[in-house]
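Entry 12.
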Amino acid sequence: MKILVIEDDEIIVDTIRLTFQVGWPSAEIVSAGMGEKGLQMVESTGPDAVILDLGLPDLNGFEVLKAIRLFSVVPVVVLTVQPDERSLIKALEMGADDYVTKPFRQMELLARIKSAIRSRHPDAMCTSSLGPFEFDVSGRRVNYRGKQINLTSTEFLILRYLALNKGSVVSREKLAQQVWGSCYPGYDKTLRVYISHLRKKIESGSKQKAILSQPGVGYYLTENI
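Predicted 3D structure (tokens):
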């Protein structure tokens, strides 16, 4: 696997390299300190995933993300020092697969990168139907009652697991394990962001709630959808 890091802070780049050396030594890390250079490398080197800083010196990270999505479906995990939900939702709406806030936890970063890559390389199936949802794994699209919904890789994994357990409450811990492989500190806040974004996409234009929550426990898809 080749991971492209678009980040101007060499200390952070070195930390990411060390993280992969310890937790995923077979992965190759390449880097670019500028957004323009990063865009060129996405096109020329064909990375399996991109780690993108939103605070680059030449281009706004959102601009880089938007440009990447014009020609590539490579998984993109953004790095941000802005933990507010509006910035995170903006990144997801522009095509980011996941995000990590600085200072990041090393194993959390690895888990999110692996999750994003795994969603792009489905082993078992290309299309499957679960209740009212038809999941197109290769395109990360969902057809819901005739409506096509484009999802990030993380949203896709969350919704599919909830659909597999339709009508039953899935604990936040179990959901985090399925998506990222671990329950790192702060995972519950991260899940809330993704659930909020999923609700907006699925429930748009409808008065019917699709994803419900059980306070203090987890989430579930209603039986009535």
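Annotation: The radius of gyration is 17 Å. The longest strand covers residues 2-6.
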